[in-house]
Amino acid sequence: MAEQQEQAADTMTTRIGQAVMLLHGGDREEARSRFLDLWAEIGVEGDALHRCTLAHYMADTQDDPSDELAWDLRALSAADELTGGLTDDHVAEHPAHHQSLAVRAFYPSLHLNLAADYVKLGRSEAARGHLGAARAGMGVLGDDAYGDGVRAGIGRLQSRLDRAGPDGAPEPAPRRPGHGRGPGGTGGPGGETLGPPRREP
Asked: How far apart (Å, rounded) are the C-alpha atoms in residues 71 and 56?
């Protein structure tokens, strides 16, 4: 039974990866259609890692900033399901939860994406709140290209908000690229890594 569940998870990971490749190849419409089909298949009670991954990439396919925000909020909610209540001691006793704990390293990116969404919507206070959460979580980022990219994105958005002042509306943030890196090294075909992408505001 466990083996069948693992095979099903691997298949879903591959299918998500295929849709991500379409997105990165510029076919946003087809990618969005496939993501929606996969989302319906997984369901709201389905695997939280898959939902987090799908929602995060789905946000990149949206034309309406409000829709982009809604998908990024779904990604954060799924991540919370994976990490809620986990402690290092608990993970040591239950090795299966290592991947869930690893998702914590993606909170800075998740909050950065939400901050960028709120900038697009002209909601500076909400943007600053999520940017603060992103900055507070930077200690979990590695000393690598991914960590450097997220830190740089946080710095750029912070500068944009600082220029706007406490009550001003920041200039719109450009669309974020969808290059990614997945929690726990979850990979897809063609070297794609799944999970919250590094999207720089």
From this structure: 6
Span 65-90, mean pLDDT? 82
Write out the two tokens for 26. 């510029």
Burial 56-83 (b: 16+ CB within 10 A, else e): bbbbbbbeebeebbebbbbbbebbeebb
Cα–Cα dist 68/75, whole Å: 11
Helical ranges in the chain per DSSP H: 2-24, 28-42, 48-59, 65-83, 88-93, 98-102, 107-120, 124-136, 145-164
Q: How far apart are CA 122 and CA 116, in angstroms?
A: 10
Amino acid at 135: R
Amino acid identity of 9?
Answer: A
| Alpha-carbon distance values, 142 to 36, 147, 151, 183, 200 (Å) | 32, 5, 10, 13, 17
Under 8 Å CB-to-CB from 68, ≥6 apart: which residues? 59, 60, 62, 117, 120
Q: Using DSSP, how many helices (H) and how many strands (E) does the chain show?
A: 9, 0
What pLDDT digit, counting tens, does each position of 135-169 carry?
Answer: 999 998 889 998 999 999 999 999 999 988 766 55
| DSSP at 170 | P
Short-list 180, 186, 182, CA closest to 199:
180
Phi and psi at residue 165, to the nearest 5°: 85, 170
Q: In DSSP terms, which residues pair with 187 in a beta bridge?
A: 193
Task: Please give the mean pLDDT across all residues of the chain.
Answer: 78
Sign of the Cα torsion 185, 189, 195, 197 reads positive
